[in-house]
Design brief:
321 residues, mainly beta, 12-stranded antiparallel beta barrel
């Protein structure tokens, strides 16, 4: 008995359906298309860098918890060396949403603080240890559209920082950040636009010698570059623009950025360049170098950090093969 072309098509369709069910349905399809997994990892790979909290892996790519500890040593041309511990706890709900929380602990910092009285203040540098900065809570949303990606971050700062040492805003603060990027070969150009009421929730990798409180818009544009051995380099130009006169708490005595409770004329404005280099030493340890040049304040900050991850991030190069 012969089978018509239509009949053969139906028979092949039925056989394919039975094989699909026997092999586990969606599971078999997922195994047969690893590219889908790679695309999902690409959609969330930049999540940790959006609020500049550290290298890849701090926020997990797969659903679940991750914990990390960063140790940073940096030198500021205005107030010398400082050493900071940054514990972070993160949770990813799905490929679109994640949350994380961190609170910096300054193991060592040179604080420009009042050693006199309130009536007769005398400001001088003093080395301090065991002081906390403001705790930061962040909610991130990641969306991939074709080959481009958008990430939005809402951050909340809690006043756990020591304002006498210039390490806290002294009030609850917030920041909204919009991050757009598009991969072009090894390069991933990006642009950020944001608004908030503190400078401490912007560029969190770098400890600046002041904390500005008040309406503040910030902009950033640059690119990241994928280097061999899963290394990554990023360079950005930034602008922090105050929208009103602010109060500034500071650890430096340079210029108008000093410890004060008086209203200053646009003290928070800043612009310049920031770069970072991330070198994975293993799946759980990343060595990073940072450099920030403030053109407005004529200030340089350079340092290095080690980030220890409880769960290692997936390697996209390995997943693609």
């Amino acid at each position: 008995m012969s089978i018509s072309r239509v009949g053969r098509g139906r028979l092949l369709s039925i056989c394919a359906s039975l094989a699909y069910c026997a092999l586990g349905g969606p599971a078999a399809l997922a195994q047969a298309t690893p590219t889908a997994d790679v695309d999902e990892l690409l959609a969330v790979s930049a999540a940790a860098a959006i609020n500049d909290s550290g290298p890849e892996g701090i926020i997990p790519a797969a659903r679940g918890f991750n914990a990390s500890l960063g140790t940073t040593s940096q030198h500021d041309s205005s107030n010398g060396w400082s050493s900071i511990l940054n514990p972070n706890l993160a949770y990813r709900f799905n490929r679109y949403f994640s949350v994380d929380a961190e609170v910096p602990l300054y193991a060592y910092v040179n604080a420009y603080s009042n050693i006199g009285t309130t009536a007769k203040p005398v400001y001088a540098y003093n080395s301090r240890s065991g002081a906390f900065g403001d705790m930061a809570l962040s909610v991130e949303g990641d969306v991939g559209v074709l080959t481009a990606a958008y990430s939005g971050t809402v951050s909340l700062g809690l006043p756990s920082g020591n304002t006498a040492y210039g390490l806290g805003a002294g009030q609850v603060t917030f920041n909204l950040n919009n991050h757009f990027e598009k991969s072009v070969g090894r390069f991933t150009p990006d642009i950020e636009l944001g608004y908030g009421d503190t400078s401490s929730l912007v560029e969190q990798r770098v400890l600046k010698s002041y904390v500005a409180v008040g309406p503040l818009a910030h902009f950033q544009a640059g690119t990241s570059v994928d280097l061999p051995w899963n290394c990554s380099f990023e360079a950005d130009a930034y602008e922090e623009l105050p929208l009103a006169k602010d109060i500034v708490y500071s650890t430096t005595g340079k210029g108008k950025k000093k410890v004060t409770t008086a209203t200053n004329e646009d003290p928070a404005e800043d612009n310049g360049f920031i770069t970072s280099l991330d070198i994975p030493l293993s799946g759980h340890v990343t060595l990073s170098g940072i450099y920030n040049r403030s053109l407005r304040d004529h200030d340089d900050v350079a340092g290095f950090s080690l980030t220890f991850l409880l769960k290692a991030p997936p390697r996209l190069d390995d997943a693609a093969h």
